[in-house]
Amino acid sequence: MEPQIRTLVDIADTPAALAGRADIVLERGRWAAEIFQRFDRELTMSIVDAVARTAHENAGRYADWAVEETGFGVAAHKKIKNELTAYPLVDFYRDQDFINPRVSEAQKMVEIPRPAGVIMALTPSTNPIATINYKVLIALMTRNAIVISPHPAARECSVDAARMLAQAAEDAGAPTGVIQIIEQPTIPLVEEFMRSKKTAVTLATGGAAMVRSAYSSSNPAIGVGPGNAPVFVDDTADLDKAARRIIESKSFDNSALCTNESVLITFESIDKRLCQSLRQAGAYICDADDVERLRRYLFHDRGFNVETVGRAAVWIATECGIRVPENTKVLVAPITQIGIEEPLSREKLCPVLAYHVVRSRAQALAQARAVLRLAGAGHSAAIHTTDESAAMSFASAVEAYRVVVNVPCSQGASGFSTALAPTFTVGTGYFGRSSIGENVGPQHLIHWTRLAYNSSDEEVFGNYQDIPGNFSGPLPVAPADGVPGLSRYVPKPAINTDSPGALIGASREDLRQLIAEELRAILRN
Fold it and tell me: Over the stretch 163-183, which tens digit does the pLDDT of each residue have?
């Protein structure tokens, strides 16, 4: 029998090899996180601001690149999203301190921040650069290291963008390895990253299967479910404003955001007037034949036709054999029922909006609930009304944690035109089988150790206001024997943190030596 010869490719794909590749990256991230957690707030925010500035300055270039590589969306709209996940994101959290201890004399308690460590970040193809910007910045705000796993369809632009942000962070003083990206992601490799004990938490944004995989990795995970937002327009709404806002939202980036409206529900009494307002805003109202063509094209035996994701309304109409005006922004498809029998009532990441007419408010609420039961539970919903009781009834009825009022749902639920936290990871909570129900932010990447005193008046609370934090900067040089943590090393003199240049050089060199020595020790075993 001929001996079996394993190729280098075969060897590289073995579980041991995949685990080794993941471990090298994660160990680099772990040491970067250890160093980063010794930085004070001033230096940390200077790093955050430098990365945000770089993200903003390159928003247009990466928007063009993402559309060219993936075929999804509108470059001008992606540029806006890339910019929104730079300065506005940082400014939203600027006054929140995730670094210094919090002292409450009334509660006789001190809260000490404890960053997670290494964040594993999965990013989608629909919003690749905006999601990278967002996850990198919330990781840096909390002094965590981050490893990014890009969607294969957006790999090239994602890898380049992550490298650029990593360089900006290091130039501003961040430890080398605080931002890393998996340049050739595969499912087995990503699974090794997610299950490694060196991964503190996986921050998953993408398809349901990927999110479920993150939750089943045995490590903590923060994931989101699919969207399928119902939007209810009642008879007190300003119909022209409602129509403009809905079409603006549904056409934004060709509906590539999961927070976009999926099914419009309205009363029979205002049906014709609302349809006229929708036409004036740029919608094409489909007839029965058009709806059937759309249904067959968008949904097939294997599910949703992914070729339509982020495509323009005119492009989709042409593929379906529907003639529409060249300036059409959204295809509105009237449907008579909502449920599994009507595929158009499911999520559609393209500018096709299902349209359903009801006779009563009770029926409207029931149908909105049905939309979310079909898909998108816990995600988002929208209402256009001037009746506060109607808004309260709607928000109380639907199983969604974000209900936006008189605003484009795409931007409103994402926190970019409301006071909700700006995000590209929308928590779907208990309704959507997720661990978090709010918009995910830096507060979810840090926990707090609570130093709690005896509440009895007989026990005096200590004076913690003047105790400085442990902001000693980089770790000392690795010991000569290459075994970090086993004494026999002498700490270097304190580094002047007022001199960013000195800090940058020290942190990089220290980290390189630490990693090199530990890898040598591993290889000797």
Answer: 999 999 999 999 999 999 999
Kindly report the number of other CB atoms within 10 A of residue 268's CB atom: 12
Using the 3D structure, point to which of 431, 447, 463 is the last residue of a domain: 447
Torsion, CA 280, CA 284, CA 285, CA 289, rounded to 10? 160
Number of domains, the chain: 3
d(CA 23, CA 196): 8
Residue-number span of the structural domain to which 518 is assigned: 475-525
CA quadruple 34, 447, 424, 367: dihedral, nearest 10: 160
As a whole number of angstroms, the distance between CA 5 and CA 11 comes to 10
3-state DSSP assignment of residue 111: strand
Asked if 158 contacts 128 with a C-beta cutoff of 8 angstroms, the reply is yes
* 350 in active site: no
- Which position has the token pair 């909105």? 368
* CATH number, position 299: 3.40.309.10
Residues 214 and 240 occupy one common structural domain: no
Specify if 161 maps to a domain: yes
CA distance 117 to 504: 20
Find the range with the poorest average confidence among 57-66, 80-89, 296-305: 296-305
- Output the six-digit token pair for 62: 């990466």
The answer to whether position 427 is within a domain reads no
Please identify, among 447, 467, 492, the residue that sits at the C-terminal boundary of a domain: 447
pLDDT of 353 reads: 98
- Which residue would you say has higher pLDDT here, 161 or 19? 161
Given the residues 157, 258, 275, 350, select the one marked as catalytic: 258
User: Looking at the structure, do residues 302 and 401 belong to the same domain, yes or no?
Assistant: yes
Q: What is the model's pTM?
A: 0.85
Closest CA to 80 of 99, 63, 103, 102: 63
Asked, for residue 137, whether it belongs to a domain, the answer is yes
